[in-house]
Structures are given as structure tokens and as C-alpha cells.
Amino acid sequence: MREGELVEALKVRALPEGSDDHGALVEFLRLYRDAVQFVVNKLWSLDKVPSISTLHGMFYSELRKLGFRAHHVKQIYVYAKAVIKACKRNNGRKPVLRRLTARIDKYDYKLDLESRALILKIHENREVKLRLLTSTERIEKYKEWSNYEIAVKVVENEVYVAVYFKKTVKFRKPRTVMTVDVNFDNVTLAVFTSSGELLKLKRFKTPLRKILTHRIWIERIQRRYSRSWRFIRGVRRAIKRHGERIRSIAWDCAHKLGDRVAKIAGRCRAVVLLEDLNHLRDRVNGGSSFNKKLSLWFYRKMLFTIGYEALERGLAVRYVNPSKTSSTCPKCGSKLEDSGSRVLRCGRCGFTGDRDVIACVNLLYMYSRCGGLGVPLNAPKPDENPSGMRGKRDEAMKSTNINLYQS
Ligand SMILES: [Zn+2]
Question: What is the pLDDT of residues 348-357, one digit of tens each?
Fold first, then answer.
């Protein structure tokens, strides 16, 4: 997502209008799939997938001869390139494409949202008319957005369309900075003035306990049927149900919390600082691989919804490398030691504080060091006692309007 640009997909079922339209669409999708496969076959043995302009030279005239429009051709080799990259990354074998699906450029379709009429330009200059099956309420939202691409697929004779919309967001001038630290069991946010004074501190609980309860059920079932659970339908289903509950609880939480955090950010007119998703992996240290995967998945959902909700409110979102933010002393920069129940202590300067609050403060430092605030912040001197960072964590959480940098 580019800065200030929101992208969303509207996914709906569609009905072909004319009697020939379904057949023509399926024919087009087959042709399209075979063309992608053709490009994949040609490129598979190459060590490196050529650039888009080379691909254009290699395939343009050949694919045009098959009856595709110019923009179809481009979509075909771009898609083939993505397929090859994905398969090679997974150490896979050469893919055999089966699904009937195509991405279609804005030059090759016409969409009238009001009447839900979609006209696709397919091969040999033919057209297919589709009617989108969706409610007025769902469409209402996108009246102010522009659409730039669609994906169409046929599954078991049903037609599905995804319309990709985008909207440019005008940023409001920020007054404060909000940092957010996401953990599996809580989300902590801190709001600072541009000179680094703490204005607000808040912690939200996540439904970790509920999620773990379902996880324990799954493990119990798997233990009881340790040899057979994969093969008994009822057992497999029970496991699946618990898995679905876990996902829906986490989704639900991500949405609610994302919304609440972004609301606060909106009221404070904050620049929102989040952890850079690409560095998240280092931080995840759970026991089993299941917990690792689950928490990683949860972080991503959480950070995505916060970022998205903030953008929708016209707030800028910045991503900061979070490495060591939860293990570095904000006063002297030494490594912090764990002194139990999420409290960290600095062996060098004696600083103690809540783990999540420290992470929030360090995110702010990281950002200011990269010039994000315009002015570099000075970390508090070792003999200072920032009241917000001392004592038990609940004390720290209750107080607002704490000056972190008394001098
Ligand atoms: Zn220290």
C-alpha cells in the first residue's frame, strides 16, 4: 500500500446476463489459463525470470495472435511471473494451473456501480455482461472510491468477481505521536507530544486465555486419539471447529482493538508508529510452532487493522524497526534483564519499568533517531526517575499525564 492510499476489494457473486455470456466467459478463462501456463512452461527452466519489458518482447505478439487484447497480455505474463516466483520460493515443482481465474485491467472492463452492471472485454473483441449480486449498503461505501482492476473466477459454474477499489487519503497535520506495542496478551499504546512528553498510556487485553482454551482442547483430542485423529471424521471435525473458533476470536479482537486504538489516535491527531512487520519474526518466541505461528498471525492482523483504521481517519502511519525495543534500557541503552511478571530492570543504571511501556518508549526513540520527529530526543539521564516507568506496571498504566522526562 502506498502512503496515503487505501485499497479494498469488494468480493461478490455475479450472474451472466446474456445466454451466451457464461459460455464465453468460461472459454476466455480457459484460454487465459492456458496462456499463463504457456508462459510458465517457457520460463520455468530459466535461472532468473526476465524483467517485465523482456517478457513483453518475448510474448506480446504471440499472445496477441491468440485473440487477447493488449492489456490481457500484460496481465498474463505478470501473473505467470508471480506464479513462478511463488513456486520457486516454496521449492515447488513446475505448477500446473487448473483454476479458472483472471485479473482484468481497468482498460478491459466497464463497471457501473449504481446498476451493478459489469462489462468485460474478452478475447476476439467480444464482450460479456455480468450483474453483480450485492446489496446497496455494501456498494454505498465505494461511491467515493475509484476502481482500477478486477479479478474474475468461475468455480463450479458460479461466477465470482472481486473489484479492487482505491482511495487517496488526505493526511491531517499531526499534533502528537502514538506508539503501539502488540503482544499476544495485550496491546499497549502511548501518546507523546512532539517533544517526547507522555500524554496518555493505555493497555487493552486480548482474549489470549480464550484462544488458549481452544488450543488445549485440540491438544487433548489429539493426545487421546494420537494415532487415529487424522482418520476419524468426527474427531477431525472437532479439531477443525476449535481452530475456527480461535481464528474468529482473534479476528474479532483485531477489529475491535484496531478500531479503538485508531479512534484514540484520531482524537489525539497522532502519527501512528507501528512495528515493521518484516522484523516481527525475530520477536516471536513461543514454545511450540503452533503458538509461534498463531502469535505471528495475530500480530499481523492486529498491526494491519490498526494501520488501516488509522489511514482511514487521515492519520499517517510509520513503521519502525522494533529490534531490541523490548530489551534495551531507555535511559542508558544497556541490555535489560527480566525481573519477573513483565518488569524489566537495567543492571547498569538500576532503571526498572513495565516491559510493554518500555517497548512503546523505545519505538519513539527509534523513530526520533531516524529523524521522524524533526528533532532528536534525548533519553532521560540515568539519575532521573521518570514516574511513568517506575513501580508496578498497573500503577504505570493507571496514570496519565505523566512527564517521562522530568528535568
Ligand atoms: Zn540503564
Answer: 998 888 988 9
CA distance 193 to 373: 10
3-state SS of 110-141 is EEECCCCEEEEECHHHCEEEEEEECCHHHHHH
Report the Cα 318 to chain-centroid distance in Å. Answer: 14
Contact between residue 292 and residue 196 where contact means Cβ atoms under 8 Å apart: no
Q: Which residues contact 182 (CB under 8 A, 6 or more apart)?
A: 275, 299, 302, 303
Q: Tell me the CA–centroid distance for residue 336 and ligand 1, in Å.
A: 7
DSSP string covering 209-249, please? Answer: HHHHHHHHHHHHHHHHTTTTTTT-HHHHHHHHHHHHHHHHH
% helix, strand, coil for the chain, step of 5? 45, 25, 30
Chain segment 94-112, per-residue pLDDT in tens? 899 999 999 999 999 999 9
Ligand 1 centroid to residue 192 C-alpha, Å: 21
* Ligand 1 centroid from CA 329, angstroms: 5
214 CA → ligand 1 middle, Å: 40
Pair 104, 118: CB distance under 8 Å: no
How many angstroms separate the most distant Cα atoms in the chain? Answer: 81
Does residue 382 have a pLDDT over 60? no
Nearest Cα to Cα of residue 262 among 313, 333, 336, 194:
313
Distance CA 351, CA 345 (A): 6
Helices 233-268, 208-224: inter-axial angle, 10-degree rounding: 170
Long-range contacts made by residues 201-209, C-beta under 8 angstroms, separation at least 24? 201/357, 201/360, 201/388, 201/396, 201/397, 201/399, 201/400, 201/402, 202/264, 202/397, 203/356, 203/397, 204/257, 204/260, 204/261, 206/253, 206/257, 206/298, 207/249, 207/250, 207/253, 208/184
From ligand 1's centre to the CA of 333, what distance in Å?
6
Contact 311, 6 (CB under 8 A): yes
Q: Contact 351/389 with Cβ under 8 angstroms? A: yes
Cα(398) to ligand 1 centroid in Å equals 24
- Please tell me whether residue 380 adopts helix, strand or coil conformation: coil
Q: For residue 352, give the C-alpha cell.
A: 526498572
**Distance in angstroms (rounded) separating the CA atoms of residues 300 and 323:** 16
User: Tell me: the pLDDT tens digits for 171-226?
Assistant: 888 899 999 998 878 899 999 998 888 999 999 998 888 888 898 888 888 888 87
